[in-house]
Design a protein that fits this description.
mainly beta; 7-stranded mixed β-barrel; 1 helix; 48% strand; binds copper (II) ion
């Protein structure tokens, strides 16, 4: 396959990431760091997780479903947020939903997630199909860096 010529600085980084020689491999996704801070609202919650793609093909998060309510991907723009459709998971890269940035938005909740329980979420990807994630509900002020 013909590859585009990238500027030197970009190419250097790409070579390190593709060092295992798997640049033509399929998307290979894994999910880590999933959690939902217990929401203050009865109807809305935010969720965070990281999707890592070890493969050489990009994938795309096309929709998210859960039995607790409606879920969409949101990005934060300044002090407001907006829905994003088809969020890219770059080849040899990550899609990061984290506090203060992009997040999963739970709306029209049928029940309020309580600390200690788990919420089942299905991530639907264009290439990899459906990935089911059990998202633990943490305290309202949970910080993944400190773990509490
Ligand atoms: Cu939002």
């Amino acid at each position: 396959m013909r590859r585009l010529v990238a500027p030197a600085a970009v190419l250097t980084g790409a070579l390190v990431l593709a060092g295992c020689g798997s640049e033509d491999s399929k998307a290979e996704l894994s999910v880590s760091g999933a959690y939902i801070p217990q929401p203050v609202s009865d109807s809305m919650a935010a969720g965070f997780l990281t999707v890592t793609n070890k493969g050489g093909t990009k994938d795309k998060l096309t929709s998210v479903t859960s039995d607790v309510g409606e879920v969409t991907a949101h990005e934060t723009v300044g002090s407001s947020m907006q829905e994003v459709k088809d969020v890219d998971v770059p080849a040899h890269g990550q899609l990061v939903f984290k506090s203060g940035g992009s997040h999963l938005m739970f709306e029209k909740l049928k029940r309020k997630p309580e600390q200690g329980e788990k919420v089942t979420v299905k991530l639907h990807f264009a290439e990899s199909g459906t990935v089911t994630v059990e998202m633990p509900v943490k305290s309202p002020t949970y910080n993944p860096k400190t773990g509490h």
